[in-house]
Amino acid sequence: MKDELILLSHGNGGEGTKKLITEIILKHLGNELLDQLLDSTIFNIESNKIAFTTDSFVVSPIFFNGGDIGSLSVYGTCNDLGVMGAIPLYLSLSLIIEEGLKIEELEKIIVSIKEAAKKAEVKIVTGDTKVVERGKGDKIFINTSGIGVLNEKRDWTKRKIEPEDLIIISGTIGDHGTAIMLERLGVEVSKDVRSDLSSIHHISIPLLEKFSGIKFMRDPTRGGVATVLNEVASSYNVEIEIYEDALPIKPWVKEASELLGIDPLYSANEGKILLIASKDEAEKIVEFLHSFELGKDASIIGKVKGAGDRVYLKTSIGTYRILDSLKRDILPRIC
Amino acid sequence: MKDELILLSHGNGGEGTKKLITEIILKHLGNELLDQLLDSTIFNIESNKIAFTTDSFVVSPIFFNGGDIGSLSVYGTCNDLGVMGAIPLYLSLSLIIEEGLKIEELEKIIVSIKEAAKKAEVKIVTGDTKVVERGKGDKIFINTSGIGVLNEKRDWTKRKIEPEDLIIISGTIGDHGTAIMLERLGVEVSKDVRSDLSSIHHISIPLLEKFSGIKFMRDPTRGGVATVLNEVASSYNVEIEIYEDALPIKPWVKEASELLGIDPLYSANEGKILLIASKDEAEKIVEFLHSFELGKDASIIGKVKGAGDRVYLKTSIGTYRILDSLKRDILPRIC
Known about the structure:
2 copies of one chain form a homodimer. Chain A is an alpha+beta fold.
């Protein structure tokens, strides 16, 4: 099948779909649950407290430095569970493929999903495949939904954000968004340029087990760190101050952002955690993060002030400016 | 917002997305879980045995007689849970919208989702919204994933299909596929022409509670009844015989199928259950089905013969022909 192209008949629910599922999807992703090909998958779950999330991925291009739409679909959904304190266990995988996609490219994506699922320690247990006509889609869109388990200890949702709490980022900002933008421009780039795509629950879970002072966690994807902070400011009615000098930004991200006129604070990240923690624990959290490769650039980047609903950036020269949430579309189809 | 069109900025994760989510989606679908807009939704589930499913819907046209892509997305996923004996509880909702869709149309779809979720007694608890450029999608694609709970009594997956078991269909076949086909041709049709779209767990759950002789259940969507039966024949290594005379088919479906040269046995259904049950219970099951509006046309349509892997149709004139699974694509984007 490798040299072939996806046809509409691969989505008809009959022989074509069966062949595609067996020879390309189950070949790589098969497990005792997915192999049953039932209308829904049945399993026992050991905790009564579960987390559920969904994400559709429409990133363009589908292959980029540091990953592809397949690994993004796995890590993106695992991260949405991980920041809520849930250990990701089961994912669904639903493909909307444009007629004409090379089956070889599809297989490359499926292999990438397999490897990401292995690293993230999750199982793909149920799926769906649809095909749309040429010009009615764009190569491939992928939806993954995920189920994870959590416990009281790791559930931060009932804790209260207070003045003097500190804002922590687990690593450099803007890598994914900037890498995709450069990829799309088709310019030649250095080998440093790559998405930060990775799964963060291997650090978020031990963090939440260890530190009860963590009051908020999110992975700052579309809209970036600035947009998440604005959501916090308006949901929790607090003012937030961010220190420009404290922001960890890779040199190539800084350079490309200046050239392209974008702000890394608004660029998507795909392997970072934005945390809010009590003043007492913040430094210990950063220290703990530094013990992980994924957290080696972790920094305290700001703090929660009194009541309000705005985010301020204290610039390198000591002035303040309002950091709004994203208004324009700096780049569509980043994830 | 009603007169406006979807813009790329509605998918940027910032202000545009927030406005769309608040004013169109939460306005209709809001509940205590969805309103939190967290990266994943946390809830307690009372059973340890759960069912999980996913489906992406790409039906074209998005509005049709008997439903639209919104209600289809709810019922389709609930039905995948219902036929496995699971009571659907929680759905995710992920939208991939093409730039330029009228917000008025989107709202119509969201209202339809709301009404379907109410009828099916499920909650939309987590979601995602992406926007793709004009010409890179087709109005709207919707993914729903679903979680349901089940118990040992309703779990038929370990029962064994045997010779003499009977095949039952809960109602007329081919309604959905034929209605969509007529809709797409743009021909004027009588008011009888409509999809059979509905949720079937309100009948599948009591059926499974009452009859322990049910050994298989599936909703015969893409590929129709013939394709599901072929899957059964090859998975369970049995021969199946279907009686043409026993097939419940609405007059308009029969007529349109003859005109269009299609076979209702291969047309999609969206509110039907195909069951396999022990000989002893089959008649009682049909009787029980008749007590529901959705099951009023239920019939025994065939039986399981000895070992084999083929499905045969016994025609009205007494001859036999092999009923293969769907090979060609009779109609793309039926669901």
